[in-house]
Task: structure prediction
Amino acid sequence: MELKKASDVIMPRIKQQVPETHRTMHVVNHIRTLIENGSLRSGDKIPPEREFAQTLKVSRASLRTGIGYLAAMGVMKVRHGVGTFVADGPPEFGKESVSLMGALHGFQSWQMFEARLILESNLAALAAERAKEEHHTALAEEVAEIFASLESPAEFLIHDVLFHRIVAQASGNPILAALMETITSTFYDDRRKTVERAIDLRESAEMHRELFRAIRSRNSEEARRLMEEHLRAAQTAQGMESTDRKDGKRVGRPKGSRSKLAVPAA
Result:
């Protein structure tokens, strides 16, 4: 019996498979290019899923995976029932990841505050050196809102967070600002649960005003010192808020004393 050579055997043609990872990165790189060349800007809505998938010649599943990757990085924002948009401002770099790592590795509260202390004190110093007039205006507005919210702890917290976010943006370093956002947003989830038990909001408001004045006057060392003082006070305050009080009432500070119970930023 004559054996056929391998070249004589007709084999079925196998369609070359494109790995799913390759298709996902194709989506990611395409959107990245659109952002880099200015075709997509902050707040822009990307085309509908079916249309975009056809344009990229990928399945809708691959498109969703790529969009999910970008959303996890804080580049895209998915609004269910509305669409997918390019995120405004710096990415958060996985707030959920920090919370998960904390749960897995037992991050302590003091360790998180230490990270904030190092990061935000330096952001405040940079803001004093680099802030533009628009940042000064925005900070002044938030200080006014903070004082207007003294009787509403939840509202106070919102403007507290916005104040710190503007300081980070004023540093002129979006990477550091994004890292700050990641850490402080982790605190925010816990902070909302205790904010109604906050005490001495006026003292905290005064500290924010002093910090704003240091930044506006371009005094970087004073801005650094005040941010450190504020965050150390915040650590003490949050610890006290988390402690159940027997009478459930707010406790005021003695007259003439400088409280260390300033409300922490989220």
Notes: Confidence is low (pLDDT under 50) at residues 1-18, 244-266. The CA atoms of residues 87 and 172 lie 18 Å apart. The radius of gyration is 25 Å.
